[in-house]
């Protein structure tokens, strides 16, 4: 299989508005959200998704990199439920950056980029069998994806 990475979508930490750890966040100029070290949340309650869901798998990898076992108070199958409960102060959760656009401004929450040392992202990629026939339409679609997301080398 040939695989080409197109884009990395960062995971954000979701908390209630003005969480008491907000004072440790650092706002980079030009950055949409401040950055915070996940290790600060070691003693905070977490709301995670069901095991087997991709968001949970990435969340577990992030927590593994942060080297702590979270205090999980709730497991849900809905990222939106986790996000809403976090906005109400019941715990903190993770959400991919692109998912924030789903139900925007429905409620108030704070979002934080997580320090890169925890590898807090998932990667969108295209896979194709290496020597399999690919139609013109398929090749064009992959090239368009590469253009849209700024990936170089897709179907060149």
From TrEMBL:
Domain of life where this protein originates: Bacteria
Gene3D superfamilies in alphabetical order: 3.40.190.290
Pfam families found in the cross-reference section: LysR_substrate
Domain LysR substrate-binding: 6-148
Protein name: LysR substrate binding domain-containing protein
């Amino acid at each position: 299989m040939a695989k080409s990475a197109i884009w990395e979508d960062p995971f954000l930490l979701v908390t209630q508005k003005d969480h008491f750890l907000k004072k440790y966040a650092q706002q980079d100029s030009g950055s949409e959200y401040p950055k915070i070290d996940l290790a600060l949340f070691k003693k905070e309650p977490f709301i995670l998704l069901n095991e087997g869901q991709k968001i949970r798998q990435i969340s577990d990898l992030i927590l593994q990199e942060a080297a702590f076992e979270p205090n999980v108070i709730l497991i849900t199958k809905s990222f939106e439920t986790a996000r809403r409960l976090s906005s109400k102060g019941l715990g903190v959760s993770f959400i991919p950056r692109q998912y924030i656009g789903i139900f925007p401004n429905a409620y108030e929450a704070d979002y934080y980029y997580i320090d890169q040392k925890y590898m807090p992202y998932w990667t969108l990629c295209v896979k194709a069998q290496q020597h399999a026939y690919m139609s013109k339409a398929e090749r064009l679609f992959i090239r368009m994806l590469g253009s849209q997301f700024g990936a170089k080398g897709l179907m060149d």
